[in-house]
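Bench notes, bay 3.
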Amino acid sequence: MKNRYYLLLFFAFWGCFTQAQELHFSQYFNSPLLINPANTGFNPDYDYRLGANYRNQWSNVLSTPYKTMGIWGDAQINPKKLESGWFGVGGTIIKDVAGSASLSSTKGYASMAYHQMLGYSSLLSLGFNVGAVNKKVERNKLVYDNQWNGRFFDANGPVDGGETFVNNQVTYFDLQVGLNYAWFVSQSAYFNAGFSILHLNKPKETFFSNTVDPTIPPRYTLFINGSYKLDDKWILNGNFYVSKSAGANETILGINANRDLSGEGLKVLIMGLYYRNKDAIIPMAGYQLNDLKFTISYDVTTSNLGKFNGRQGAYEASVVKSGIYLSGHRGIKCPTMKF
């Protein structure tokens, strides 16, 4: 029982860390509007995208595992008077449920971006989003330190453990802004980088009345990716991602290998390997059929948490559907890399 108590304390501490890092996916590139609003409508070969993401974490050690679910979509708007640029509009909804007390977070954002061609080989994008965030907890499912009697938690012990709860939920508005730069080096090479700032309006979030400073600090996110076409069958895609907020940070890097199975780019096998710094190794696999892409991944824990979860971290799945709705597609000729 004592070991179980320490395990609960460990996850309580770990929960504080992950809350500081907020909601996240290992497959961050398959949730583009979440990491940078300048990605809205940035899909040169298509007019629209629809996506869904699911993450299940620590299911082998928690009776109620951490679950994160998201849906998103974006589309291009190309006024005829714009000869070298276009607008993108979109939105995303993401929900996270954590732990036996059902600590949940629901976020909804509307995004807009403008994309401007710089000559014939590069593109600069500026985007922003505005959204609403709701977080709530079921207090009656919580246990507190002063309910521990030395052998077990006494359910009849003090309620709320002396904590100064004001309410069970909090709602606030949130703002994010981002820049994105793409360079189409050649038909065989591509480079892309983006930077965004979340919580630009510094919203306040707390369930308590005695919180010293409930202001959420800005979250800074940088991503870099590049692609290189080896031949008609193979394209390599490298990715780097770092996100920082106050004292917490997350860094992911890795590579995808895309293998054309059809000879025309209609069937593509995706294999990847990623690493989250001081946390997990993430193997990844996927399959793209025409305009529909499925990707799955698994976080193999490398941190001290692996002593408790048997190196079993989280699994994720995502699906992205792209399409064309404009007759003849849009008029702007933007270079791309494809099979």
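Next record in the batch:
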Amino acid sequence: MRPVTRSSSAKEIESQIEETAAKLNAAKAEIGKVVFGQNTVVDQTLMTLMAGGHVLLIGVPGLAKTLLVETIADVFGLSNARIQCTPDLMPADVTGSEVLEESADGKRSFRFIKGPVFTQFLMVDEINRASPRTQSALLQAMQEREVSVSGKAHALPAPFHVLATQNPIEQEGTYPLPEAQLDRFLMQVDVDYPDEDAERQVLLVTTSNKSTKPKAVLKDKDLLAIQSLVRDMPVGEKVADAILNIVRGARPGDDAADIVNQYVAWAPGPRASQAFMLAGRAKALLDGRPAASVDDIIELAEPILKHRMALSYQARADGVGLRDILEVLTGDL
């Protein structure tokens, strides 16, 4: 797949969209051989990667979150590493550290040993079981795609994506992620229980001696080309207006709706608008369409805003949830 440049014509972009959509459908088919009954989760995870972002997968243990991450890494042909978060995990266990070495002639020098973050596809399993200090070790990597150790910056490979799994915070031994880190995840994808047919398939396939290994359909350079194509796709004025209306409407103020002023404790920042813009294009590309629509933006509102907004205690007391607020924000679009 050749990369799209800013000088690419509309016809070339349209051709690239058709070619890319076919490859993405093939990738989805390979993922579906291993992960059953999670079509929405797979789609939203793929959109996040196509948009160049990071994804936070939330659900109780045993819902194939880890399997999903490993399968996508295989299908996209990316180098991958896994960090199992525990309360005693240290920042150096993530980023790496410098060690003092002595050469044969007796000279001593420091050498940097890279940590597991130096990969293209980093799975951070149960991220909220790590302490806040260790969680913060990922902040620079997720935003700047580099790690600073002892005053030296070390670039991460491209593409670089973090796919973190998180247990519900009500479970024992978990630490809530700080708002600054949550904002660095392009989407929060909730992984729910599979339906009966999918669970039956899981039951039969995973308890037999037969195992299915997904094939690599894409390569790292293909993913970079897809990310470039997403940024080249046009965005209509109505779509941009819809994004601004949703994000700015979610912020309490004189012009905000009563439900927002009454129940929103903290609201989304400009990264939410950027996430909408990229994810909307990625969704259109995944569907084989040349441009995002207002309906795409409405559909993506929950996974993009869920982790970027907090409701007040009054909202809980009155039984008001995020969906109630989103219905008001998207009602006139």
